[in-house]
């Protein structure tokens, strides 16, 4: 029999998986942040922009799906975070809006701003979009500053009632004051740039860009590993926000996230396999000049590793969105989810996800049957 608890855990897994897919697809943003460094001539810039332009909608759609699924399955998180830390989310969403505008209008007739302006927007999205998203996810482990009035949960939807309040006037920007958040933000940024370099090696038919992409795989891969290990080790040796399953009380537990890994060995093994796959994709691309499949190893590894990391944040009696100013206001998978009826109805719809993924794979392969070269841009009626 499917229980309410099963549905809550199921939907946290779906959210985690969507988060893993989103981080993988951020290679588009990573490539945008390197338009001016990896490409020197106008033709090279056009080739890079068009290679990324054929993929930007995947990232945008996954971001919207991730946000929509989070809103539907865990509405209290949405109300608390988006309603309180709104400067972070507004900055993130603004960077993605200007990305969409840039791809759609930079090559339109009558463009008075010129391609340089729109490429600057793409660079902005490439840097800010990845870094801010990493910082936001880091608060799942480090905590935020909010208080929830649990009494008002009974009258949710009644005008004048406020469920939660943000305890800092910076409304989310205070997360930038925590160096551990910076570590994950920079790790996501350099991971996206590393994945973009691997994507260029696999996708472009251009010897010069090929050679530069292999170099940039190393240049970005090293800082990614450094910042990711710094965040991971720091998190594993720190206290975490544990939840008493009987009373719902939140308390600080030493080595909480390390304990989660140990107590969930399947999650630990999959996480390590994901990390190894990412490292193999990077190292093999740098060492073997004939190897161009690094994006698939690193991409699959990223999806698995990020998914497992998010499971550690929410499973095993852990507060996935902790408040360090009011620990008992921390959000858990149990106290922030939608009703059993809503989760059941959504679960039926989620059965269509494999078919959607199959279509994405089919469309991706149809567009990637051959590598992209400069001559193809003139034949494409929708070149960016």
Spatial ordering of strands, largest sheet: 1-2
Q: What class, by secondary structure content?
A: mainly alpha
Total domain count: 1
Shape: globular
Straight-line N-to-C gap: 52 Å
How large is the share of residues in beta strands?
Answer: under 5%
Overall pLDDT level: 88
The ordered H/E elements are: HHHHHHHHEEHHEEHHHHHH
- Uncertain ranges: 152-162
DSSP helix count?
Answer: 16
Question: Can you summarize the main beta sheet?
Answer: 2 strands, antiparallel
Number of strands: 4
Task: Identify the quaternary structure here.
Answer: single chain
Helix proportion: 55-70%
Cα radius of gyration in angstroms: 21 Å
EC number: 1.10.3.-
Pfam family, one: Cyt_bd_oxida_II
GO cellular component, one term: cytochrome complex
GO molecular function, one term: electron transfer activity
């Amino acid at each position: 029999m499917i229980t309410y608890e099963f549905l809550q855990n199921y939907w946290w897994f779906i959210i985690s998986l969507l988060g893993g897919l989103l981080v993988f697809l951020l290679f588009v943003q990573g490539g945008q942040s390197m338009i001016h460094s990896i490409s020197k001539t106008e033709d090279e810039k056009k080739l890079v922009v068009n290679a990324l332009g054929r993929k930007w909608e995947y990232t945008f759609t996954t971001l919207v799906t991730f946000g929509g699924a989070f809103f539907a399955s865990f509405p209290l998180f949405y109300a608390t975070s988006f309603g309180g830390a709104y400067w972070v989310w507004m900055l993130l969403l603004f960077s993605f809006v200007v990305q969409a505008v840039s791809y759609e209008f930079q090559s339109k007739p009558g463009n008075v701003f010129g391609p340089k302006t729109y490429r600057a927007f793409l660079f902005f999205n490439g840097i800010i979009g990845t870094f801010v998203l990493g910082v936001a996810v880091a608060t799942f482990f480090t905590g935020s500053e909010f208080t929830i009035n649990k009494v008002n949960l009974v009258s949710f939807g009644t005008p004048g009632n406020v469920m939660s309040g943000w305890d800092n006037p910076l409304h989310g920007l205070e997360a930038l004051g925590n160096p551990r958040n910076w570590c994950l933000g920079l790790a996501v940024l350099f991971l996206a740039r590393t994945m973009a370099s691997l994507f260029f090696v696999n996708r472009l038919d251009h010897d010069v860009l090929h050679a530069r992409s292999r170099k940039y795989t190393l240049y970005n891969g090293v800082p990614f590993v450094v910042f990711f290990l710094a965040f991971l080790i720091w998190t594993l040796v720190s206290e975490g926000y544990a939840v008493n399953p009987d009373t719902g009380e939140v308390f600080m537990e030493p080595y909480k996230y390390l304990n989660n890994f140990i107590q969930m060995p399947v999650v630990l093994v999959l996480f390590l396999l994901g990390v190894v796959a990412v490292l193999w994709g990077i190292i093999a691309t740098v060492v073997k000049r004939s190897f161009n499949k690094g994006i698939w190893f690193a991409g699959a590894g990223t999806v698995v590793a990020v998914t497992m990391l998010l499971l550690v944040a929410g499973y095993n009696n852990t507060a996935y969105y902790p408040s360090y100013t009011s620990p008992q206001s921390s959000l858990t998978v149990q106290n922030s989810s939608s009703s059993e009826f809503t989760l059941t109805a959504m679960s039926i719809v989620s059965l269509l996800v494999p078919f959607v993924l199959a279509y994405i794979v089919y469309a991706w392969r149809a567009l990637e049957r051959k590598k992209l070269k400069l001559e193809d841009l003139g034949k494409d009626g929708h070149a960016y």
